[in-house]
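RagB/SusD family nutrient uptake outer membrane protein
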Amino acid sequence: MKSINKIIIILVFAAAIAGCKKSFLDRPSNSQISSNNFYKTTSDLRLATASLYAGGQWWRWNRNGMLPLGDVLAGTGSFGYSNDLVQLFTRTITAQNSYVTEGWTGLYSLIAQCNTVIIAIEKQAPASIPLAEKNAAIAEAKFMRAVAYYHLAVYWGAVPIVEDNSKLIENPLLVRNITSDVYKFAANDLTYAAKYLPITDEKGRVTTWSAQGMLGKVYLTMAGLGKSGSRDQALLDSAKKYAGNVCRNSGLSLLPNYADLFKAQNNDNQESLFSLQWAAGVGYGNGNDLQTWYAPTSDVLPQKSGGWQSLSPTYDLYRMYSAKDTVRRKATIMLNGDFYPELNQAAGGYKATGTGMKKHVIGNEKDNNAPTMDTWSSIEHNSYLRLADVYLIYAEAVLGNNASTSDGNALVYFNAVRKRAGVDPVTVLDAATLRVERRVELAYEGQYWIDLVRYSYYDPNNAVKLLNDQDATHGRIGFTYDPVTKTATRDTTATPTALPATISSFTLPIPASELVSDPKLTQPPVPYY
């Protein structure tokens, strides 16, 4: 397993991707991007930043981090096998856990690539390239780097901050930086991105609204750090400012049909603020293979291969959906008897025979008119930030330290999310209502554990209680569904029991391979600023 030092010193860039038509998905070759003759034109800059939207470094996190850490760890997805996934589900995580290691490695690989692009533009780009173009390209790279550091801070807390890869050649042993400074670093990168990214850009690229939406999320998370019992009002105000600006001034709107968000023909729709730009036919380790690993059956997949680790919804997730919340439920999880005409169309559609994940399962190459789509390369551009998320961030920032709120603006955006789902509006908001809404809206998008960590910062006792109540009362456990009686019955013995949660449960261990290569990671963290 490569250590962070090796990853940052020896960068791995995505191979060039061939498509039916030219787009920013066409990546430069390895030899191009590492050449001293690169970064000489605006086109070079656009190619360099295009490499940050997909490829091997995102593949590691997208497959091994986003769902396993964001949803399995949170009790949204259930596994009865695969030892490392069971560790996440049962809170018996070791430093050798492959998902912990791959998640860490993937994020630092992305950071290394961002650092290289930023420094190369600063040092190599000639004066003939307009300054606005240079700043915008750097802003794209800083946006990506901020997303990576935000996830590192959420999952691991204090981690090393690296912004110049070359310094590791002389001093490869890193110390960790305090968690608040990791968030501050991410916020600084996003502030730069918000200033220099354009209002609109080529479809699929991030804009100032992407950066401001992420700033809202980062500030909302920072607001509770070390503030047991309350949140920092100034940081809540910053979250409200940036998220509110996206809500009111971006001109963006929710896609009318929730289920359409997760169909490839709607990639990069008006609700998408940041999505990975996956392409077909790129081979193992470079594409989007979420559905290959987590679909309930191989029948709906390209070449009928995959569906090896069905991500079964937990009973605890299922019970979050109200009786009217059928649109989101069916687009997110399959229940016995559900019919999906868009999957396996050549055979007349697909009828589910058990429970499983639906989100990210988009079907085979024929369903998507994508002949080069294969086992390892779904063409879904899965989103890491979308407008509904920002709407809910804004509502939570308005709620802030209050027990409840009836603020009109917060309710407008909160209820817009519910209206799209076909469920009744609410007249008052509290923290529990927001958590449930975020959970069902964003299930299987890697968000629920992030929400729980944010909760643990300012209300640790109740955050721990929530996890333990989830286990004892409702079950981090699977269930069966009878389509005739329309009743769900929770399992009783199929899933291992989770260990009791403590506040330390909200921080992942540093991978063992990293500790071996860098013993300084065991030392107390130090300030970066």
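thats it. The mean pLDDT is 91. The longest strand covers residues 272-275. bye
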